[in-house]
Design brief:
Shape: globular
Distance between the termini: 40 Å
Largest sheet: 7 strands, mixed
Number of strands: 11
Radius of gyration: 13 Å
Order of helices and strands: EEEEEEEEEEE
């Protein structure tokens, strides 16, 4: 079992910045990639960014150049700059263990005002 706890959400004006963090605990020896997903009201959950244990990253086109994912052992961070109202969503941390079991955090709300 892996537990994920996110922090760092909040309210920010358009053009501002926020930094999200996600700490993994439990059977952390079994996890590889970690990532962030988001779900806005009325929308499906979408990928924001992922990072492997080796540091390879992947970003959604909508956040490239504005968001940066980083990882320090079993904590994954998401630095969000130049935020837009359309970035408003609940951001959730995700990882998978060696058996392919997916784990999710409860999420943290990011609200960007115009």
């Amino acid at each position: 079992q892996v537990q994920l706890v996110e922090s760092g959400g909040g309210l920010v004006q358009a053009g501002g910045s926020l930094r999200l963090s996600c700490a993994a605990s439990g059977s952390i020896f079994s996890i590889n990639a970690m990532g962030w997903y988001r779900q806005a009201p009325g929308n499906q959950r979408e990928l924001v960014a992922t990072i492997t244990s080796g540091g390879s990253t992947n970003y959604a086109d909508s956040v490239k150049g504005r968001f940066t994912i980083s990882r320090d052992k079993n904590t994954v961070n998401l630095q969000m700059n130049s935020l837009k109202p359309e970035d408003t969503a609940v951001y959730c941390c995700n990882t998978k263990d060696s058996r392919g079991t997916s784990y999710w955090g409860k999420g943290t709300l990011v609200t960007v005002s115009s």
